[in-house]
Write a structure and sequence with these properties.
Shape: globular
Largest sheet: 7 strands, mixed
Helix content: 25-40%
Strand order of the largest sheet: 10-9-8-11-12-13-14
Number of domains: 2
Number of strands: 14
CATH architecture of the largest domain: 3-Layer(aba) Sandwich
Order of helices and strands: EHEEEHEHEEHEHEEEHEHEEH
Distance between the termini: 24 Å
Oligomer: single chain
Structural class: alpha/beta
CATH topology of the largest domain: Rossmann fold
Length: 312
Amino acid sequence: MNGSLKIFSGRSHPHLAQKIARILDIPVGKSHVTRFSNENLMVQIDENVRGADVFVIQTSAPPVNEGLVELLITIDALRHASAERITAVMPYFPYVRSDKKDKPRISITARLMADLLQTAGADRVLTMDLHAPQIQGFFRVPVDHLQAIPIIADYLQRRDLSNHVLVAGDASEAKDVGRYANRLRLPMAIIDKRRYDDSEQAKAAHLIGDVRGKHAIIVDDEVATGGTLMEAAAFLKEQGAESVIAAFTHAVLSGTAVERVDASVIEQLVFTDTIPLQGKESKKFEVISVAEVFAKAIRRIHKGDSISDLFH
């Protein structure tokens, strides 16, 4: 890419954007957002971006819908300011769980998000650990899909893993947990859980594998309300697990999730900073930054180098 590299940040996670920019040794681009009395937003780019290779960092965090609209307006403003290429950097993709039509007369909203981003003028998307990797197929522009497995696995390897077992919260997560198992050379167990109604709570029914006398590590892509996680942790203790920790990419932590974690048998919750904590605190939290892997990906995209080499 011949144009200069520029990083702009939305208001959802400026701290992460600043960390990425520092690693790249460039400043965060100048822009500002005006919110009018009628709740309309205006985004103004306060520097020249003509011919530039621009990356806009905006994750999905409360208020989700306002953050999304802000991102779309920012991309449109950059397009009309003659940026050469615009990449939407979305560490946590909005509406990522709405990836299929599993009920009548509903929207496949993740597909709608893809359409909106492309209509606004995004030339490509950079994201991490999509709940359903096939969401990449919703786009007609390139999507670079980063993985948090290497950095979370590296963190877990700091402890003695000789008597540990990785646990998939349900059968659908087994493939992803298998990647951790291969990297960490640990055995796996799978919780067979059942969801009997429309609530977000699922019930653990059976365990495939053995956790008795072992230290269990529950691995998943995200934790939302924490209900399913608490159920899984309690179930593992009932099955004889010596201790339970959990590792996730995206810490949504909605509702009373923090209080649930604090009151649970889980000893530690490890997750990345794809989503800002926004004041949520617990002594059990351990946060790992994804800034370096995003900075490396941005540099490679800008130079036209391979992204897949990051995960070898």
